[in-house]
Structure to design on (153 residues):
């Protein structure tokens, strides 16, 4: 059992977080992997002739292009988009910077990922929808039961 799966006591809002991990990163699989690979290959193929040419501005542009592609790929691996679950509430990180904390008291419900939805979403008391990036269906159902009874699909 890892430290992420250790049982935790219910928080002040009455949400039982037992068995939940602290963070749910978006899996780096499927279409995203092929898109990133294609972008890398395209950047390298377009940069190689520029790097081999004699003019320094073309070389500099090629180096910058390759550096941006490599940086983008590293960002996806180093800090992938994720949903963090804590006793205070939920926090969604889209790229590198975490979004604002959504306290448990501000959550009206959690809509669990259904057959045609790409991911689960949280609905706040003021009507905003917060996509729960990377949150598994089981974890979303667990949170939905804690917030508002049976999970909605």
């Amino acid at each position: 059992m890892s430290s992420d799966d250790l049982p935790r006591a219910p928080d002040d809002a009455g949400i039982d977080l037992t068995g939940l991990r602290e963070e749910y990163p978006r899996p780096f699989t499927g279409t995203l992997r092929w898109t990133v690979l294609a972008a890398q290959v395209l950047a390298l193929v377009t940069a190689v002739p520029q790097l081999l040419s004699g003019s320094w501005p073309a070389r500099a542009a090629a180096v910058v292009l390759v550096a941006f592609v490599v940086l983008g790929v590293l960002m996806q691996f180093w800090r992938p988009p994720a949903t963090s679950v804590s006793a205070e509430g939920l926090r969604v990180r889209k790229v590198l910077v975490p979004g604002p904390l959504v306290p448990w008291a501000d959550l009206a419900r959690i809509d669990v990922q259904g057959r045609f939805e790409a991911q689960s979403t949280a609905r706040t008391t003021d009507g905003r929808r917060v996509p729960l990036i990377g949150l598994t269906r089981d974890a979303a159902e667990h949170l939905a039961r804690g917030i508002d009874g049976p999970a909605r699909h």
Observations:
- The two ends are 30 Å apart (CA to CA).
- The mean pLDDT is 76.
- The longest strand covers residues 98-103.
- The chain has two domains: 31-78, 80-153.
